[in-house]
Amino acid sequence: MTQSQPAQAGAPMITFSNVQKRYGAVPALIDINAEVARGEVVVVCGPSGSGKSTLIRTVNRLEEIQAGSIQFDGQEVHGSLRGKQLNRLRSRIGFVFQSFNLFPHLSALDNVMLSPIKINGASREAARATAMRLLDRVGLSNKIQSFPAQLSGGQQQRVAIARALAMEPPAMLFDEPTSALDPEMVGEVLAVMRSLASEGMTMMCVTHEMGFARDVADRVWFMDAGRILEAATPDEFFRNPQHERAKRFLADLRH
Amino acid sequence: MIADIITIVRDNWLLLLVGQYPNGPLGGIAATLILSVLSIALAFPVSVLLALARLSKAPLLYWPATAVVFIARGVPLLMLILWTYFMVPIITGYNVPGFATMLVTLVIYEGAFLSEIVRGGILALGRGQMEAAKALGHGGASAMLYIILPQALFNVLPSILSQFVSAIKETTLGYVINVPELTFAANQINNQLLTKPFQVFFILALIYYVVCWSLTRAATLLERRIVTKRSGLSGAPLALTATAATVEP
Ligand SMILES: Nc1ncnc2c1ncn2[C@@H]1O[C@H](COP(=O)(O)OP(=O)(O)O)[C@@H](O)[C@H]1O
Ligand SMILES: [Mg+2]
Fold first, then answer.
1. Which of A78, A94, B150, B229 sits CB 3.0–4.6 Å from B235 for a disulfide?
2. Which chain A residues contact residue B239 at CB under 8 A?
3. pTM for the complete prediction?
4. What are phi and psi of A26, to 5 degrees?
5. pLDDT (tens digit, 9 = 90+) per residue, B115-161?
6. DSSP characters for B195-218?
7. Does the beta carbon of A52 sit less than 6 angstroms from any atom of ligand 1?
8. Is residue B189 part of a domain?
């Protein structure tokens, strides 16, 4: 199935090298050099507009970059990758959106089953079994026939996570997965993310949930104005942020 | 007056219904309905292709499709009909029957209008759906087929039905190139009676009104159902049929 040459076990899952990205003349990512190791959980935080979404969206090429390179599991994401190869690579990168983006015309079950069938050529039975297992895992085995409009935000986001997992990605990316949720639903989504992390999933999470960062993250990247200003363990970052900008950000969050 | 109308209908109902058929070509309401159903049925796939071409970044798809849509929308239908009627025989050397001329013209014309409706339906979905599809690894065609179009086309169903009503009204123009449809039949009756134009054309108007009103009504009901479904209150049956149609492997 996987056509990428499997990188050595020690090699990073995601590597950013000198990545530059502009929207028109406005720089959005400046000199990004960073790595997400296999099995690592990285939390990306920073003020609004600092480039977090842009950064995470370059990994599966929802955004193009102007210079530098990004490797996912040993494979170059930008550059010459086109068409089917790009689709294949994307199917191996789980992506969870702030706005869920479930397919509203499909039931929860069909949302999860669709891509394995249409992209991987899975049989209906196999796709269904996988989907049932994943929906059960995110605590929604009683909602499989519900349509997205009939689900709460937290439930929709959990279906979205199951949908991404159905492609058996070696890594999962989350772009503010709980920011669109009512406060009482944040916990149920974070719980699913925690359980994924505990099973060794490689994760890159843009989030403002500092409790999650503290408990689950191996490293925290702090972004400001298109740069990664700090990359540290949660302990270092929360106890002793190096930059004035990071101190202010943490102080603002505490209010 | 009422008595006149009843008499006219009683004497000519077959002509109004099917024209000269079986002794001549099929006409009347039957021809009108067949013409409008066929034109919409054929215009529909044309419109989807035009819409996709107009959304494409490839200039070779975008520009021709855009030209067709702008021309078809920018000139009166009657002119389009006359052009097809007089130009096609000159260009091809074949005499094309009025019915076929009318059908082809309507397909282009309706296709252009429907394509803008379909394009609007696709754009209205927002980019989140396409991004989610891409992130899962769907290519453009797969995303369109299984994710974008099922939603977009379902959402624009009421507009498609309204366009069908327009098509019925537009078939009257077939009269000018002797397509034996409903208006043509009414005019035949009028030419026989000579003295009762008001009654004859009142019947004609009434028939069009009843047909078009029923369909407009259906479009409104359909729209209400879709709105209900989209708000997630009920409509599971509708939704289930949509699912069955889209996730079969
Ligand atoms: N599609 C876009 N077009 C132009 N500018 C954009 C676009 N998306 C983001 N930006 C700009 O890029 C910068 C980074 O945005 P973003 O990555 O969304 O930040 P964050 O996710 O950290 O809030 C912001 O200045 C934003 O206005
Ligand atoms: Mg963002």
1. B229
2. 105, 107, 147
3. 0.87
4. -85, 120
5. 999 999 999 999 999 999 999 999 999 999 999 999 999 989 889 98
6. S-HHHHHHHHHHHHHHHHHHHHHH
7. yes
8. no
